[in-house]
Structure formats: C-alpha cells, structure tokens
C-alpha cells in the first residue's frame, strides 16, 4: 500500500514539473499593434523606450496591463494609455494632438486669408463711409432745413442702433422687401459680402458725419464771413475755404474710426461672411481647440491695429504742431 502511495506522489511530481517546464506556445503569448495619427511616433512600453516607431507590432508580451506611451516631439504632444493585453493580437490607437505653437502655425494660413478679407472689407467700408459721412456732415451744417432733418434722422438712427441689428436688418430684412417689390413676393437673397459691405458702410458713414460736422464747426466763423465778403457763394466758400481746413482736423478722428471699424467688422461673421472671425469659428469646430485659436485671432487683430494706432498718434502730433 505504501508503495502505491509513493508511486502516486512520484507521478504527481512528474506531472507538476512537466507543466512548469512546458514550452510556451504562440497561442499563449500576446502581441500589441501600436498605431498613431500621425505615424512615425516613438513608442515607450512600461517606461522602456523601444526602437520601433508607429505603426509597429510588439511581439512576445505577457498578458495583463501595460502602459503604452507614444510621442512625436516637438510638433505633437505625448499621449499615454493603459492597455490590458489578452492572448493573441491586440491593437491600440493614438491620435496625437499638435503642440500649441505648431497648431497655431498650421492655423495661420487660413486665418491670414480671413485677415485679408477683414482688411479689404474695412478699407472699402471706411472709404464709402467717408463719402457718405462727408455728404451727411455737410448736410447737417448747411442752411437747408430739409437736408438738416434728413441727415439728422440718418445719423441718430444709425448711431442709436447696434451694428449687429443693422447687419440683420440688411441681410435678413431686405430680401423679403426686395421680393415684394421686384420678384412677386419671393425673397431675393443677398450675398453675405454685399450685406456686410452695405451695413458697415452705412454704419461708418453715420460716425464720419459727426466727425465732419464737428470739424466744420471747429473752423472760426470769420473764415466764412471773409470768404463771402470776397464775393464767394456759400457753396464756394464751403468747398474752397472751410472743408480743406476741416479735413485737416478730422484726419486723426477718421483714423480712430478706421481702427474701430476694423474690430467691429468681426460682427459680419454672424451672416456667414468668411472674414477672420468666421475662419476661426470654422477651425474651432474642427479642432475643438478654442484657446489657441482665439488667442491667435486676438494677436492678429492686435498686429493689424497697432500700426494704425501709431499712425493716428503721429498725425495728431503733426497737425497739433502745425496749428
């Protein structure tokens, strides 16, 4: 009986040792396929940097939890993921985000395109505003009650309503009105650029009108009396004597109006006008990175406005000295 017991113990030990020394088959091993977007990122597994770069397959790994780190400096951030490996082939994917500076660099071409549109829109709007505002400003000081009333209504209405409301009125309010007049009641859509240009021009004209009016009234009344005593008509005196002197004084305020309009032009993004702010909105919806995007937009606006701010300050000093 004892011999049987010894035999059973020996057989059990033999089976146990055979199980321990049994070679590990491929079916019991784990492999890991590492993929990254963009490819070519350095792989670190459990704190050990491998010589492989993504995409890569790492064989002969033990099952269980591992830490996989993928990085591609200096343009992309480093990402880390815990991975639980099972027997066979496992896959882990990484989407590497750009570093802040590189992201801003990639966004720059699109934002510069929007910046050019913003500058173009502002320059044309302010030019139109100067033409409209000069006529309205002169109309406010000439001895014609009809002109005084009409120009006053225009200036008060535009200055008393938000620019955003004016943009909506033109872009969304005018199509039904034009349709009733010219298209049998069917709305006539207006191109966003046309709507933006009209709204900004009209808005700028109201503020320029007040600038021109103040400039004209700052000229001593004796100038007009002297011109009339020389035989000039009122319009001749205004055109040859008063306006040239007034324009000299209104140039610095017109520079400030340009800077204000440059910033206010961002409101036209609400009607789909693809200027600087609209371009930034599109980028944010794709990248979900508003911090860097809006910081870059703010810097671009600052770069655009600083030269004009310095120019306005220079003109103010220059004309103040000449006076």
Write structural notes for this entry.
The protein has nine helices and seven strands, in the order H-E-E-E-E-E-E-E-H-H-H-H-H-H-H-H. Helices cover 64% and strands 16% of the residues. Helix 2 (100-139) crosses helix 9. The strands form two sheets. A four-stranded antiparallel β-sheet has the order 3-2-5-6, with no helix packed on it. It has a three-stranded mixed β-sheet with strand order 4-1-7, with no helix packed on it. The chain has two domains: 27-97, Immunoglobulin-like, CATH 2.60.40.10; 101-322, Orthogonal Bundle (MetI-like fold). It is an alpha+beta fold and 323 residues long.
Rounded mean pLDDT is 87
- What's the oligomerization state? single chain
- Rg, Cα atoms, Å: 37 Å
CATH architecture of the largest domain: Orthogonal Bundle
Number of domains: 2
Largest sheet: 4 strands, antiparallel
Q: Spans of 5+ residues with little confidence (pLDDT < 50)? A: 18-25
Would you report the number of β strands? 7
Widest β-sheet, arrangement of strands: 3-2-5-6
Number of helices: 9
Q: Provide the CATH topology of the largest domain.
A: MetI-like fold
The percent range for helix content is 55-70%
Can you identify the CATH class of the largest domain? Answer: Mainly Alpha
Beta percentage is 15-25%
In CATH, what is the homologous superfamily of the largest domain?
Answer: MetI-like
Using the alpha-carbon principal axes, give the shape: elongated
Structural class, by secondary structure, is alpha+beta
* Topology order in helix (H) and strand (E) letters: HEEEEEEEHHHHHHHH
Spatial separation of the terminal alpha carbons: 130 Å
């Amino acid at each position: 009986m004892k011999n049987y017991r010894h035999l059973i113990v020996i057989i059990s030990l033999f089976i146990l040792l055979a199980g321990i020394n049994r070679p590990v088959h491929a079916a019991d091993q784990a492999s890991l396929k590492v993929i990254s977007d963009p490819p070519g990122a350095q792989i670190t597994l459990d704190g050990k940097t491998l010589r492989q770069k993504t995409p890569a397959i790492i064989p002969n790994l033990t099952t269980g939890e591992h830490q996989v780190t993928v990085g591609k400096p200096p343009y992309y951030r480093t990402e880390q993921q815990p991975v639980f490996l099972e027997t066979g082939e496992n896959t882990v994917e990484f989407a590497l985000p750009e570093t802040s500076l590189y992201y801003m660099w990639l966004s720059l071409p699109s934002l510069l395109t929007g910046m050019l549109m913003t500058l173009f829109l502002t320059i044309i709007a302010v030019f139109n505003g100067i033409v409209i505002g000069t006529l309205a400003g002169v109309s406010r000081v000439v001895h014609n009650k009809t002109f005084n009333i009409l120009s006053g209504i225009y200036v008060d209405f535009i200055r008393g309503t938000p620019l955003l409301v004016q943009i909506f009125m033109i872009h969304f309010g005018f199509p039904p009105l034009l349709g009733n007049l010219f298209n049998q009641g069917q709305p006539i859509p207006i191109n966003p650029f046309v709507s933006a240009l009209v709204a900004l021009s009209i808005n700028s004209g109201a503020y320029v009108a007040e600038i021109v009016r103040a400039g004209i009234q700052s000229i001593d009344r004796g100038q007009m009396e002297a011109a009339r005593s020389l035989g000039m008509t009122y319009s001749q005196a205004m055109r040859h004597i008063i306006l040239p002197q007034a324009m000299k004084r209104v140039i610095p305020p017109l520079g400030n109006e340009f800077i204000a309009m440059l910033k206010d032009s961002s409101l036209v993004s609400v009607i789909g006008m693809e200027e600087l702010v609209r371009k930034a909105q599109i980028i944010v919806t794709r990248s979900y990175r508003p911090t860097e995007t809006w910081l870059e937009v703010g810097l671009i606006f600052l770069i655009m406005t600083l030269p004009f701010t310095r120019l306005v300050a220079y003109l103010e000093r220059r004309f103040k000295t000449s006076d």
